[in-house]
Amino acid sequence: MNKRSVGYAIGKLLQVMALVLVIPLLIGIYYDTRIYRKSILLIPEVTGFFLGITVSFILGLLLTYICRKQRGDIGVPEGYSVVTIGWLTLSAVGSLPMFFYFIFTSDAGSFPEIIRLLTDSFFETMSGFTTTGSTILIDVESLPRGILFWRSMTHWLGGMGIITLALAIFPAMGVSGYGMYKGEVPGPTKERLQPRLSESAKILWGVYLFFTFTETLLLTTGGMPLYDAFCHTFGTLATGGFSTQNLSIGQYDNFFFHWVIIVFMVFSGMNYLIHYRILFKSEIRYSLQDRELRFYLATLVVAVVFVTGMLYFKGVPPAEESYLHYRHDKASLEDFRDHVERESRKVSSPGGAFSHAAFQVVSILTTTGYCTADFDVWPETCRYLLLVLMFWGGCAGSTGGGLKIIRIMTVFSISWREIKKLARPRWIPPMKIAGLPTSENQIINILALFNLFIIMFIICTALMTLMTGDLVTAVSCVAATLCNIGPGLNGVGAVENYAWLPIPAKWLLSACMLMGRLEIFSVLVVLQPSIWKK
User: Fold this and answer.
1) What pLDDT is recorded for position 173?
2) Beta bridge partners of 436
3) What are the distances in angstroms from CA 465 to CA 49, 195, 459, 473, 506?
4) What's the confidence (pLDDT) of residue 435?
5) What does the alpha-carbon distance between residue 78 and residue 2 come to, in Å, rounded to a whole number?
6) Residues 484/517, Cβ–Cβ less than 8 Å
7) Which of 16, 438, 363 has the alpha carbon at shortest distance from 188?
8) CA 302, CA 357: separation in Å to the nearest integer?
9) I want to staple 76 with a disulfide (CB 3.0 to 4.6 A). Which of 26, 179, 325, 382 is the partner?
């Protein structure tokens, strides 16, 4: 392990972070000076951004200076280390503006309260960078525009990958390495679009930017304010889910917004290599023959049709039934009846049932986490199906989380292959992934990650049962963070939040977010003492 090359790469990442933080700083200055009419440095969030920029730039400068003589190329062990430590470092530095704002706008007079605010700030920022969307904010709309823009922007950066963005810049700075790309890009295959890795990174970010401006234009055309359009586009394309509204997308009650976001969530759950081939190479027929894409779209269609039928024909259960679900701060039964009545009216017509079913199914399967309805009061079968879809996630090479469609297909295929072999012992079928021949090592890698994912889910759920008091809440909050979804069920449902959880639970779920986004292997490799030896 070349430790100095790891330090040099992280130093460069911090310098990039310092530049990126200038954008929400300018947004904050533009909006907050108009609102408060104060000197810039007297506004807590603006001062917090100055602090974050200063710390990030100075720390990055020190690391690159100290490690400049042995920076070298980034191999696989170094790449995994840069990705894991880099994401932790950037989340810590990125949380400084929010932490500074919390400190100066709350009664943080005691050490335990400071620790809670530090935990909340890190949790929210890690949730942003990992595109999870789980939040500790009770009143989102009360936060300043600069903080909310940065909160959404962390989604956008983390969706395509901070390292992938930096790789387009690093070769000119003396850093390169397939190891970093391999450690961050989701999915079992890490296909390059061009021989040079930096060129591949530029192509992926080019497609990402194209979709960003296209969705923003459509949302503003429909009447959404430009600021909100950018923030919701960031959350859509990154499959993150942070909103500028307390009721998420449901605040707008606008079917045009709903369907624009549905379409781009579907796009974001697809492999970005397919987008590149369709947009820039006109390989439409070849792309549509991709078996993973077909399975992904078929899953969406079947799930949407099923949930639509359940909502329209069965309807939302009586308030007394869903009132039994665990809530941390439960409303009165009378208020809850009003809430359930409003949710029932949303799905009372065929169009309403189809629209809300489509939005929630796509949002959960692509691991976006936006909400137009409180799916936690829907029929139990629908809640169960949405919980299952959390684990599936999007396609490999998408910005979605979860296990990925290709791995689900592989597990099914290998299981069916073994069943057929039992009936025909002498039969030796070829090993394939999505209809394409593959090596035994790749199959083992997929099955190993699948097993590790289940093991981590079981362990973390067991720990969360000690801290939540409700099994469904414990199961769903681990699923929601490990699969980078955001909302879960019961105590962390669609209209709930994570603020009430104890501090140890928030740190555990932050670790789940990181492992889910980096797909466990990157984190576990770094935890091995042997790789740190020379």
Assistant:
1) 47
2) 433
3) 37, 48, 10, 8, 13
4) 67
5) 7
6) yes
7) 438
8) 11
9) 179
Two tokens at 338? 């009003």
* Consecutive H or E run containing 433: strand 432-433
Rounded alpha-carbon distances, angstroms, from residue 516 to 60, 357, 404: 26, 26, 11
> So what's the pLDDT on residue 166?
62
Instruction: Report pLDDT digits (tens) over 401-453.
Output: 899 998 898 888 888 888 888 877 777 777 767 667 777 788 888 888 899 99
Report the length, in residues, of the chain.
Answer: 534
Q: Which stretches of the chain drop beneath a pLDDT of 50?
A: 172-174, 178, 183, 190, 192-195
CA distances (Å), origin 389, targets 130, 302, 367, 384? 19, 12, 9, 9
CA distances 369 to 149, 272, 340, 481, 494, Å, are 18, 20, 20, 11, 9
**Residue 267 CB partners (closer than 8 Å, separation 6+):** 211, 237, 275
What is the H or E stretch that residue 432 is in? strand 432-433
Q: Which two tokens stand for residue 73?
A: 């190329």
- Looking at residue 436, the DSSP 8-state letter turns out to be E
Q: The whole model's pTM is what?
A: 0.92
Sole residue written with tokens 């049932």: 353
What DSSP character marks residue 318? Answer: P
State the amino acid at position 271 in one-letter form.
N
Cβ density class 138-177: b for 16+ within 10 Å, e for less: eebeebbbbbbbbbbbbbbbbbbbbbbbbbbbbeebebbb
Give the pLDDT confidence score for residue 195 in this predicted structure: 42
